């Protein structure tokens, strides 16, 4: 471990020297992943228009915050392998898909939250094949820090979600790290996610604001439809209330 | 920052300096290969332009009406006064909305609260950005309704009808809603809503109200609308190893949308129309992707004018 740290310091010194040659150019990777093939005419009989709208919005707004390059994928390239291979260097991650808090392999009452990868252009969703569990994300992310995580799915913002920990975000609202995790608590209409995320990104794009303020604003504008009384529209967050969402 | 975090920060530089980083050794190589892997998965941005939000500063001297309204709202809701106030007129392409906003701002330049009004001076939203007190055991739903009612009345938006109070797991406290109705039918999403913190203070107020089309001269019967839904869902699901059940059918005012027809995404927003709203639960293969599909069947002509999905 100590040898690794010495190597790391040497490396950082080398990079710092090189960085002086191009001090204004930094790469803060972000990725927006969207499952779209599950929601096509081939699988549902109709084409759901929300996934592409949500992905486009996220990509544009992550770039506006200063993340670059914006990776990820919409459609068949959003595979479990691609996601797990790419997640470590990312500073911001957006996922739109089917999500839930599933029982862990160890069984009840342990939870291992997950979202589904895109099933590909010739298949439709299958939980057993497509699940991307938080434990797998955690193994890929290791101890890396993340700035901004948006789980645009059902349930991954609930108090039982294990997805924040996969990205090393503690489920507190007073972190001092530059980190913010956003998710939805219950079963959530896509239209409500789109309304919320439009308001969230819009307020955040306005300059000297924090992500928690953007969250409060988006939560406060009302007008969210909900599937039923037991699934009210509620978004949730954990992280640093003073973080501005910018990379680094 | 962890060792892993420091390495990640270093790679943020390494990716850019690329081949120059040969002296960086194994970690630099790892960074480059990860970058290359990412590159192969990268897709082109699908939206042109940036935030599509444009704004213009407004001042109390020029728009005393907006600033006066905002001050009244702030005081009615118990929001704190800031060191200064900042106003802006916003054309928000993301939310497809135009509004005037006044924020109470602290000495450090951070917003303490905001109030937004539409072009006719009616409230859209008022939100405070501080945090609830941790003191006290929390108020009941009934108390939250009374608090919300007092706040709205004080602000000049006295609510009508029966309130719904829902506990808010994420923010604590209660969300209190007064659904808008027209002609006896709910206007989907339109409401006066108030979030009351557990300490009894109001955090936010929203007024959502869409333009409504004229009520239809006659409406199709529920059975006829159900037949439309059954036919449509049959064509969607039954060829895909899937089934469905219609869970509910209610008349509501709804906004036509592009939920099932991406070709309509760029069309202008239309007034809300009266429709039969059907909640349909998929089964079989479709249930692996969808939890619920909601269809809007125009109450006048039986056409499907939009809907919603829960993935």
Q: Would you write up a description of this structure?
A:
The complex is a heterodimer of chains A (248) and B (311). Chain A is α/β, with parallel strands linked by helices. Chain A has one domain (25-239): Rossmann fold, CATH 3.40.50. Helices cover 35% and strands 18% of the residues of chain A. Chain A has helices at residues 2-21, 41-44, 50-65, 80-86, 127-130, 134-141, 163-166, 190-204, 211-220; strands at 30-34, 70-74, 92-96, 99-103, 111-116, 131-133, 148-152, 180-184, 235-239. Chain A is globular, with a radius of gyration of 18 Å. Chain A starts with a helix and ends in a 9-residue tail after the last strand. The model of chain A is unreliable at 1-24 (pLDDT under 50). With 311 residues, chain B is of the alpha+beta class. Chain B folds into three domains: 3-41, no CATH class; 53-208, 2-Layer Sandwich (TATA-Binding Protein); 222-310, no CATH class. Chain B has helices at 3-17, 25-41, 64-77, 141-154, 222-237, and strands at residues 53-58, 84-92, 97-105, 111-117, 123-128, 164-167, 174-182, 185-196, 202-208, 242-254, 273-284, 292-298, 304-310. In chain B, strands 1, 2, 3, 4, 5, 6, 7, 8, 9, 10, 11, 12 and 13 form a 13-stranded mixed beta sheet that branches. The chains are: A alpha/beta (248), B alpha+beta (311). The interface between A and B is large, with 105 and 103 residues.
Task: State the main characteristics.
heterodimer, A: 248 residues, alpha/beta, 6-stranded mixed β-sheet, 9 helices, disordered N terminus, B: 311 residues, alpha+beta, TATA-Binding Protein, 3 domains, 13-stranded mixed β-sheet, 5 helices, 24% helix
Summed up, what is this model?
Chain A is of the alpha/beta class and about 250 residues long. Helix content of chain A is about 35%, strand content about 20%.
Q: What's the structural domain tally of chain B?
A: 3
Strand content of chain B: 25-35%
Major interchain interface with per-chain residue totals:
A-B, 105 and 103 residues
Number of E strands of chain A = 9
Q: Indicate the overall shape of chain A.
A: globular
Compute the number of structural domains of chain A.
Answer: 1
Overall mean pLDDT score of chain A? 90
Shape of chain B: globular
Low-confidence stretches of chain B: 14-51
Q: Give me the CATH fold name of chain A.
A: Rossmann fold
Strand content of chain A: 15-25%
- The fold-level CATH name of the largest domain in chain B is TATA-Binding Protein
Distance between the termini of chain B: 36 Å
Figure out the total of helices of chain A.
9
Structural class assignment of chain B: alpha+beta
Helix content estimate of chain A: 25-40%
**SSE order of chain B:** HHEHEEEEHEEEEHEEEE
Compute the number of helices of chain B. 5
Q: Compute the average pLDDT of chain B.
A: 86
């Amino acid at each position: 471990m100590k040898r690794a740290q010495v190597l790391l310091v040497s490396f950082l010194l080398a990079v710092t020297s090189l960085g002086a040659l191009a001090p204004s150019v930094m790469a803060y990777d972000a990725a927006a992943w969207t499952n779209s093939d599950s929601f096509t005419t081939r699988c549902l009989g109709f084409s759901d228009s929300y996934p592409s709208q949500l992905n486009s919005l996220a990509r544009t707004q992550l770039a506006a915050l200063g993340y670059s390059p914006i990776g990820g994928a919409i459609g068949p390239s959003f595979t479990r392998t691609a996601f797990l291979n790419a997640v470590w260097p990312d500073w911001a991650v957006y996922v739109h898909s089917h999500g839930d808090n599933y029982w862990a392999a160890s069984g009840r009452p342990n939870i291992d939250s997950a979202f589904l990868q895109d099933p590909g252009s010739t298949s439709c969703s299958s939980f057993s094949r497509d699940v991307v569990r938080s434990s797998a994300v955690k193994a890929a992310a290791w101890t890396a820090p993340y700035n901004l995580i948006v789980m645009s799915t059902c349930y991954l913002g609930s108090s039982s979600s294990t997805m924040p920990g996969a990205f090393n975000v503690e489920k507190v609202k007073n972190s001092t790290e530059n980190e913010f995790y956003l998710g939805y608590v219950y079963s959530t209409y896509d239209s409500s996610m789109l309304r919320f995320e439009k308001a969230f990104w819009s307020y955040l794009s306005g300059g000297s604001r924090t992500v928690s303020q953007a969250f409060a604003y988006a939560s406060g504008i009302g007008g969210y439809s909900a599937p039923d009384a037991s699934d009210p529209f509620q978004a949730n967050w954990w992280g640093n209330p003073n973080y501005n969402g910018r990379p680094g | 920052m962890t060792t892993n975090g420091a390495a990640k920060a270093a790679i943020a530089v390494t990716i850019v300096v690329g081949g120059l980083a040969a002296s960086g050794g194994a970690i630099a190589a790892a960074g480059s290969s990860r970058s290359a892997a990412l590159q192969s998965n990268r897709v082109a941005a699908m939206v042109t332009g940036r935030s599509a939000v444009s704004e213009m500063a407004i001042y109390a001297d020029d728009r005393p009406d907006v600033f006066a309204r905002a001050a009244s709202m702030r005081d009615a809701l118990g929001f704190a006064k800031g060191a200064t106030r900042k106003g802006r007129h916003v054309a928000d392409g993301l939310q497809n909305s135009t509004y005037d906003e006044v924020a109470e701002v602290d000495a450090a330049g951070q917003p303490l609260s905001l109030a937004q009004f539409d072009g006719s001076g009616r409230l859209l939203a008022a939100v405070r950005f501080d945090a609830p007190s941790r003191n006290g055991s929390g108020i009941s739903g009934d108390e939250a309704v009374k608090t919300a009612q007092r706040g709205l009345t004080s602000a000049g938006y006295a609510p009508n009808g029966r309130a719904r109070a829902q506990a808010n797991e994420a923010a604590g406290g209660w969300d209190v809603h007064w659904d808008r109705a027209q002609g006896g039918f709910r206007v989907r999403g339109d409401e006066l809503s108030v979030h009351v913190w557990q300490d009894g203070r109001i955090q936010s107020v929203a007024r959502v109200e869409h333009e409504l089309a004229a009520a239809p001269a006659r409406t199709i019967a529920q059975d006829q609308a159900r037949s439309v839904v059954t036919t449509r869902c049959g064509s969607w699901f039954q060829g895909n190893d899937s089934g469905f059940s219609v869970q509910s059918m209610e008349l509501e005012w709804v906004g036509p949308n592009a939920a099932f027809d991406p070709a309509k995404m760029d069309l202008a927003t239309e007034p809300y129309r009266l429709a039969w709203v059907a909640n349909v639960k998929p089964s079989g293969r479709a249930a692996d992707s969808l939890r619920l599909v909601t269809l809007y069947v125009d109450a006048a002509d039986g056409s499907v004018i939009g809907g919603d999905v829960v993935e």
